[in-house]
Design brief:
By secondary structure, this protein is mainly alpha-helical. Helix 1 packs antiparallel against helix 2. The longest helix is centred in the N-terminal third of the chain and has 27 residues. The relative contact order is 0.18. The mean pLDDT is 88.
């Protein structure tokens, strides 16, 4: 189970990188709403990825 969570976390990290990249690209094309949406999606995916990898204090 732990390995599946690690793989899912890496997939979320890749999604965050891709979303940030397309967000910056959209900013350069002056597509503000699309850029804002993609940057928010990237930030949420990055947060979810780090939350999955963070060790739990009560885990045995």
């Amino acid at each position: 189970m732990s390995r599946a969570v690690d793989v899912f976390s890496v997939v979320l990290l890749a999604a965050a990188i891709i979303a940030f990249g397309f967000g910056v690209y959209s900013l350069s094309n002056r597509e503000d709403f699309k850029a804002l949406y993609l940057l928010v999606v990237g930030a949420l995916a990055l947060r979810a990825s780090t939350e999955l990898l963070r060790p739990r204090s009560g885990a045995a």
